[in-house]
Amino acid sequence: AFPSSTPYLHLETPRFRTVMTQTEVTATYVVHSTYDAKVSWLLDGKDPTSRTPVNQASSTTQSISSNLTLPSSQWKTLNTITCRAEHRCFNPTQKTSNVEG
């Protein structure tokens, strides 16, 4: 039997100063899980991957880091950002954060 370990999701958003002074910003979700989960992003409830590159790397067997880079102008218009982790060994888990300025 598989352990029923629901992953823990942690969002690191760019600082206000970075958003105001840089042309691009990066948000990072760290997924702590014993499984190699698939990570997906939603920006204001919509899938951004068709036009926004998402990088995912397993840094250890215990965590996955997923970076989403956006133009600062787009970040400033966002209301919410959601990360979702999926794997066949646990129920899909997601975390939504309010990022509106």
From TrEMBL:
Location of the region described as Disordered in the Swiss-Prot/TrEMBL record: 45-66
InterPro entries in the cross-refs: Ig-like_dom, Ig-like_dom_sf, Ig-like_fold, Ig_C1-set
PROSITE patterns membership: IG_LIKE
Residue span, Ig-like domain: 7-100
Gene3D superfamilies linked to this entry: Immunoglobulins
Annotated Polar residues bias: 50-66
Protein name according to UniProt: Ig-like domain-containing protein
Biological source species: Oncorhynchus mykiss
